[in-house]
Every structure is written in C-alpha cells, then in structure tokens.
Amino acid sequence: MMLQAASDPLMKVENLVVEFSVGGKTIHAVSDVSLEIARGETLGLVGESGCGKSTLGRAVLQLRQAVSGKVLFDGHDLTTLKGEALRRMRRRVQLIFQDPIASLNPRRRIGDIVAEPLVIAGVKDFEERRRRVSEALSAVGLDPALVSGRLPHEFSGGQCQRICIARSLVLNPEFVICDEPVSALDVSIRAQILNLLEEMKARYGLTLLFIAHDLAVVKAVSDRVAVMYLGRLCEVGPSEQLFARPAHPYTALLIEAIPVPDPDVRPTQSVPVGEPPSPIAPPSGCRFRTRCPRADARCASEVPELRVVAPGQFAACHHPLI
Amino acid sequence: MSGALLSVEDAVVDLPTPRGNLRAVDHVDLAVGAGKTLGIVGESGCGKTMLSRAVLQLLPKKAKLSGRVMFDGQDLTTLSAEKLRKLRGRSLAVVFQDPMTSLNPVLTIGTQLIETIQEHLELDLAQARQRSTELLTAVGIPAPEQRLTQYPHQLSGGMRQRVAIAVALSCEPKLLIADEPTTALDVTIQAQILDLLAREQQRRHMAMIIITHDLGVVAGRTDEVAVMYAGRVVERAPTPALFKQMRMPYTEALLAALPKLDVPPHTPLPAISGRPPDPTRPLKGCSFSPRCRYSAGRCSTEKPQLSPAETSEHLYACFHPIAARVSA
C-alpha cells in the first residue's frame, strides 16, 4: 500500500466507497479512501460538515455498508463478516458519539448503561459485570458508588461524555472511533475530556480514530492527521509536519481560517472561496478545484492521486504547496 | 460611560424555576459606543444570551428584569410593546446562532426581506425589492434576484446566515447583536461571516455586540471584551489589554484550556477542574473560587466586586488578580 503508516497496522481501509441514495440521487459520501492506522496510534480525521468523515467512521464499524473496498481490522476483512463473527470483532472496536446526552438512554441507570455491552457480549456473572463497570467508571473519574444508581439527566454534558467513554471501555476494546467527542462541550470541559481520552489511551493501550472538525482539537491528540474534503482524502501526514507545512491548498485554507486568540494576530481577510459544492454532483477531477486559488484545466480533468510530498506526508494535489 | 449608544446599568435577570429562583444575570453593567464592537465571552449557562435578550427586551415571559437598559437616549425597560416593536428590526437588530430557526421556513427569502423593509421604512414594493437585491449582494450572495424567490431550506447554512445578516442590516440598525453567529457554521465559512460582519459594521458605523464562547473569535475583531461567569461580568477590558494583562484567573484558565496549534500533540491541556456552579444555588463568595487554583481566604465567603486595574477601562472581580500576585 502507498499509505504506509507503520509496520504494524491495526486498521487498514482500502479503496473504500460509500454512497447513499436520496430521492433517486446518489450522494458520494466516501469515494475511494485508503488509510492505515498503526497499533497504538491516534489518527485524526478532519473536514467540514458533509465531507464524509462520520460516514467513514461508521463504515469502518460496518454500521454503513460500503459499495466497495475493504476494511481490514487486525487482518480480518470486516466487510465480508456477518452475524456472530462480525459481532465478535465489533467487541474489539467501540464508538463514542458527539452528543453524550442523546447517546444515553434517559430511562436507564448509569450502572446498567455501562454494563450493557457486557450483557450483549455474554458476560453472565453479575459480580463480574459489577466489578468491570466499577473499574470503568473509576477510570473515567466517576465514583461508581455515587453514580451507578442515577439517571442520565442528573449529569452534565461533560459527565455524560465520561459515562459514554466508560461504556466504550468496559469491554477492553483495542480500537475506539471518537466521532466529534468534544464539540458539544464547553471549552473548560473540553480540555478535561481530551486529557481523559489521552489517559485512557495510555491505560488501555488503545488505538484511536479521532474525527473532528476543529483542527486545534485534532492536533492536540493525534499522531497523524488525515484531511478529508467532499468524500476524498486531500492530505495525510504527521500532525506537526502537516500543520507546519501543509501541502494541500485545502489544508492551508483550514489552518488559516482558525481564529487565533491573540489580538495582535490580525485575522487575514478570508479568501472569498465560497462554499463546498454538493456531494450529489461533486466537481470532476479534483473536488476542491471550485474553491481552490491554484486550480487549472488539469484539475478539472484529472483526479489527483495521493502522492508523497515529504517523508510520511501525502497530498492529493496537482499543484501542491510544497 | 457617557455618550454610549447602549448602556446596561445594573441589570439583574431572575428566572423562576421548579428548583427555585435562577439568577441568570447578576448586576451587570455594560456599554457600547457607536461604531464600536463589544465581545461578550463565556461558557454555556453564564448568562450571556439572557443578557442580550434583556437588551432586546425579548426575555421569557416569566423572567424578571431590574436595572436600566439605555439605548439611544431611552430606557428600553419602560417602553411600550408597540414602541419596542418599532425599534427592534429598525435600529436594534439581531442575528442568532441558528439561521434555520430565525428565518421563516414557509416564506421566500424575498418575502422576508421585503416584509422587514416595508414594516420599518416607507418604501414601495419595487423599491423594497431593489433594496433587498442590494442587501443580498452586500452580504456576498451570488445571483441575488434568483435567491429572492427561494426558500431557506434551499440554501446552505452559510448562505442562510448571510440572509439572516441581510435581514438584520435591512433597516440600517444602530446596534447589531450577533449571538453566536458562526457557531453552527464550518470554519472556512465562519471566517467569511465574521469578515462580513466586520466590514458592514465599519461601513455603516454601527455598534455591534458579538456573543461567543470562543476567545479566538473576539481576539482580532472587537474593541472591548467582557468575560462572563455564572451571571456576572468578571473581567472587562479593551481587547488588547484583556489578552495581554488579564487579571482574572478565570480568563487565564479559559485561554489556557484552548488547544493551540503551536503546541506539540499529546501535551496535556491545562483543564479547569470541576464545572460551573448551579445557578439556582448561588455561592456566597466568588463563583469561580471552587475551581480556581488561586482561591484562598475570603474568596469563598465574600464576593469580589468589579474594580479597576491600571486604567479605569480595565475592570476585574478578583481578590487575587494575576499581575498583582506576580509583583507581590
């Protein structure tokens, strides 16, 4: 594969295509995406709404069926697994969602919510379930004795996200997909949860796919970052390198658009780059070309492939910045 | 502040809830002059939106407001509903976070713009239409004539927010309140909308209040910033002074907790422990003291009042302010 992340990839996505049909039209949500995530690595996936980043996360878990392509988890192609075999694999892969309150059943007690994955996985011994639930709740900084018997509405957004994280960890997974885990949280709570995710990653030896629209948040936790635009990957590279020297004009635009909390940094007048086109009829060739200052005729006729631009850094652009 | 277009004086907003009285806004003073931009920053539940609603006189029915809201020489709290209705939309305009809920989904963009214009200005249909087209052009909407016949759902989120701004600007307001105007938008669109607001503010010499949870949004685009916590303004200063010589530990902690692009990955963030106090159970001392690393002595028993730093424009409410501690 071209996108060599490391010698030991835990998750490998190959030429994944996901499409939806809406009102007779096809939405090209994920188009020919290939990625590798090494064991113990955090890969950040950034992009604006509608770029297909969440769909990609769900397709990895087989919650969305791919049109074509492979999802290799620890050597097994998840797209070909069914029934019990898929369920067994899924125990090793967990998902944390954006809205922590909506992802908890409001009528169930916290102890039962966190124990649910164990019940589904067939852990029959009540005492063992209780022990593991207590362990997971303590790990995320909640007191099991105090919270187990309470209902979700008694907790704040940040605490609900801690509960969701505890639920995702209770089966000792190897791979966790975090889909915008902090974007519904306030700044002061966001930092707590990001730190917690880092602690949990170290403690449980996790590999993470961290999906978010906020570049600074992604940079804070990711070893490598993949930038997605309208269903395709634009750029992949080590976090520091990618932010210091972006190769794809879209990555550069995203970095430039972040408001900096420093009054001396005058906001650069935004380039009038307009809005992303519809994924129903994505532009031919490079999908970013309609908003790209460097686009020319070749960009309209030829789809750029991901190519090496620097060690470990790949960009899909005919006119890269480096 | 004399000569201010808007001054909020000792505003208190109380909301009755089943759990008891909730003091959403707790003795707030603020002022904005014509042509100036004020940023109000705070986390959810800090009272920033309730404060803006108090200015607009759009508080929930059960809410009780005391204090004065002086706008353009009149106290809005004493105006009749009819007078207020004439004022809002005309000289006092607002842009909300979610353009889908602020625009009427069953009316075309054109109807909504023309309706607002004709309600407040004496223009005939053709003139109002002409003005609508100009406004849509001004806010960067391509093919404006065609857009007039479209419905909100046919536009993207960014385009809808541009329309909402066009509606707000339609009658040349003196004050524009933008309540989280870009929170629902993507980052590349956010930059465009903030630029648009700044450009129109300059061009029309409007006063503007930007309400946001994002210190990054106010840093480069406001003249003055007020930081709110648990219903109170805890620090207020000209923007450069706030970022360079912040006194309030909460402001410092809020800025420190932001992930930064120039910090290597996996650096632990200086998080603020705990969470804001329950607004129905007010604390006796400083509301931030249970989370504050500098809290000591009277912080938990006595409320610090807003007091001036070196200049009378820079105010903070803290017994252990940052710069003073360093020099002491």
Q: Estimate what percentage of residues of chain A fall within beta strands.
A: 15-25%
CATH class category label of the domain at 1-38 and 51-92 and 224-260 and 267-322 in chain A: Alpha Beta
Spatial sequence of strands, sheet with the most strands of chain B: 6-7-8-3-9-10-12-11
Q: In whole angstroms, how far apart are the ends of chain A?
A: 23 Å
Q: Which strand order does the major sheet of chain A show?
A: 6-7-8-3-9-10-12-11
Low-confidence stretches of chain A: none
Question: SS-based structural class of chain A?
Answer: alpha/beta
Summarize model confidence as the mean pLDDT of chain A.
Answer: 92
Q: Name the chain pair with the biggest interface and residue counts per chain.
A: A-B, 48 and 49 residues
Helical fraction of chain A:
25-40%
How does the overall form of chain B come out from the CA principal axes? globular
Please tell me the total number of domains of chain B. 2
How many helices of chain B does DSSP assign?
A: 12
What does this structure look like?
The complex is a heterodimer of chains A (322) and B (328). Chain A has helices spanning 53-60, 83-90, 110-120, 126-139, 144-147, 157-169, 187-204, 215-221, 239-244, 249-257, 297-301, and strands at residues 9-22, 25-38, 42-46, 68-73, 76-77, 93-96, 175-179, 207-212, 224-229, 232-238, 307-310, 313-315. In chain A, strands 6-7-8-3-9-10-12-11 form an eight-stranded mixed beta sheet, with helices on both faces. In chain A, strands 2-1-4-5 form a four-stranded antiparallel beta sheet, covered by helices on one side. With 322 residues, chain A is an alpha/beta fold. In chain A, 32% of the residues lie in helices and 24% in strands. Chain A has a domain at 1-38 and 51-92 and 224-260 and 267-322: Rossmann fold (3-Layer(aba) Sandwich). Chain A has eleven helices and twelve strands. By secondary structure, chain B is an alpha/beta fold. Chain B has two domains: 6-222, 3-Layer(aba) Sandwich (Rossmann fold), CATH 3.40.50; 232-260 and 269-327, no CATH class. Chain B is built from twelve helices and twelve strands. In chain B, the strands form two sheets. Chain B has an eight-stranded mixed beta sheet, sandwiched between helices. A four-stranded antiparallel beta sheet of chain B has the order 2-1-4-5. In chain B, strand 7 (175-179), helix 8 (187-204) and strand 8 form a beta-alpha-beta unit. In chain B, helix 4 (109-120) crosses helix 5. The longest helix of chain B is centred in the middle third of the chain and has 18 residues, at 187-204. Chain B is globular and about 70 Å long. The two termini of chain B are 32 Å apart. The chains are: A alpha/beta (322), B alpha/beta (328). Chains A and B meet through helix 7, helix 8, helix 9 and helix 10 of A and helix 7, helix 8, helix 9, helix 10 and helix 11 of B.
